[in-house]
Amino acid sequence: MLRLSAASKRFHDDGPWVLKDIELTIPESSFFCLLGPSGCGKSTILNMIAGFEAANSGTIVLRNRPIVAPGPDRFVIFQEAGTALFSWLNVRENIEFGMRVQGRRRAERHPVVDRYLSMVGLSDHGSKFPDELSGGMKQRLQLARALALEPEILLMDEPFGALDAITRRRLQHAVRSIWRETGSTVIFVTHDIEEAIFLGTHIAVMTAGPGATIKCQMPCEVSEPRDPSNPEFGGFYKSIEELIREEIGDE
Amino acid sequence: MRAAAVRTLSLLLLLALWESAGRLWLDPLQLPPPSGVAARAWDLSATGELWTHIAASLGRVIIGYAAGSAIGIVLGCFVGAVPVMRDFFSLPIRFFRSVNPLALVPLMILWFGVGELSKVILIAYLVTIVVLYNTALGIETIPADRIRAGRCFGLTGIALFVRVIVPAAAPGILTGLRLGMGFAVLVVIGAEMVGASEGIGYFILLGRQYVAIDDIFVGLLSLGVMGVLLNQVFLLIRNRLLRRYVRTILYRG
């Protein structure tokens, strides 16, 4: 379980608080969607969990250990796959990289690479370089590269925001089935209500910044298969939309 | 294929223009046509004289370039990766970038004599600045997420530097090395025009003293060819052995 207690963040001493007293409890193996208006500080929460940024006050604790630095137990899927991937390594080598860092032997690495290559559907593209892949394939590669380390938590920062609608939907399906298969916890930042309901087991809605907090946190119990045209889905959508409208008004 | 054809055409047109200018409009003594320059170059290389000068200049370029590149990469890594170093070196770099190495020739001779050392140091000086600057820039402009991804793998310190930062900065480093090579060829001539007894710069100066304009042209031509060939060798090595590191340059990835 990951718990943020009274976590607050500002980027300059005496500057305005970006996040104020964030309270979040993220259960193990959940698909946790963090939803909020643009610029409210969703990514900053993710960066604190990743260990890139330290909270100015409050605590962030994973399995009773405070988070102090990044580590392979929490892997980030960045929005811009093109910059996050290593352009000098081909697809296989990108996936292999983490295992090489860990000093695992070649014979041990190769089956793992094959497994995650096929899990994300890139088996035929192993020797291509990232610049030869489409946007959706780059995101799949980022996913495979992270999964190869079997992280406890996958941190996804609006990973499909830059993709076209069809590719996005295919990747949402892929991420959901990978999440089921691996049992990792996924923390998924998005400003897209439909995406959050489609994917999540839990949804937290944030208030508008500055000094944003968690407005509410709830389980997402829409029945499977999740279908936006289903009235149950639509009803849940309406109630969350209402929560967000309270924050940003009728712009 | 089309690019190669256009390049050949450009070369042929240039030669045709030069040849006809030397024959039709201008005094061939003032502007010897390429055919005359080629004949003169043939004679000079047959006696070995031209090769002596080319070898002398090339040797200085290579030694100065190698030394300057090594120093430039090491310092550039510090400047690019360590914020304190960046602040520390920022003013000196801007200062020395505006001091033309040719202005340093008299000082170099007083300090290091008229021998090889002063010439090599002059080349190394300029190459160091160019490589340092581009290496530091290459590191500073690595996207933040690329380094963060490296940290997600648990990398920190030297391991992060070697496995992620250096390869990610490789396009910048290689740009510096390529520019530095061009500058080395530029500055060697200045160094050779004072107190040298061989080298293309010396040979050109000699041409002025004996009013041997065709010799001057042979010298200029040798310089240009040397620059083009060195650049080709550099690109060959880069695109064959280091291709994966320059994909962002080659394919705009």
Which range best describes the helical content of chain A: under 10%, 10-25%, 25-40%, 40-55%, 55-70% or over 70%?
25-40%
Radius of gyration over C-alpha positions of chain B, nearest whole angstrom: 22 Å
Topology pattern of chain B, helix = H, strand = E:
HHHHHHHHHHH
The residue fraction in helices of chain B comes out at over 70%
Average pLDDT across residues of chain A?
92
Task: Report the principal-axis shape of chain B.
Answer: globular
Q: Largest sheet of chain A, if any?
A: 6 strands, mixed
Q: What is the first-to-last residue Cα distance of chain B?
A: 23 Å
Structural class of chain B: mainly alpha
Strand order of the biggest β-sheet of chain A = 6-7-8-3-9-10
| Biggest sheet statistics of chain B | none
> What kind of oligomer do you see?
heterodimer
* SS summary, helix count of chain B: 11
Count of helices of chain A? 8
Unreliable spans of chain A are none
Question: What's this, in brief?
Answer:
The complex is a heterodimer of chains A (251) and B (253). By secondary structure, chain A is α/β, with parallel strands linked by helices. Chain A contains eight helices and ten strands.
Structure description:
The complex is a heterodimer of chains A (251) and B (253). Chain A is α/β, with parallel strands linked by helices. Chain A has 8 helices and 10 strands. Helices cover 37% and strands 22% of the residues of chain A. In chain A, a hairpin with a 2-residue loop joins strand 4 and strand 5. The longest helix of chain A is centred in the C-terminal third of the chain and has 18 residues. Chain B is an all-alpha fold. Chain B is globular, with a radius of gyration of 22 Å. Chain B is built from 11 helices and no strands. The model of chain B has no long low-confidence stretch (mean pLDDT 93). Chains A and B meet through strand 6, helix 2 and helix 3 of A and helix 7, helix 8 and helix 11 of B.
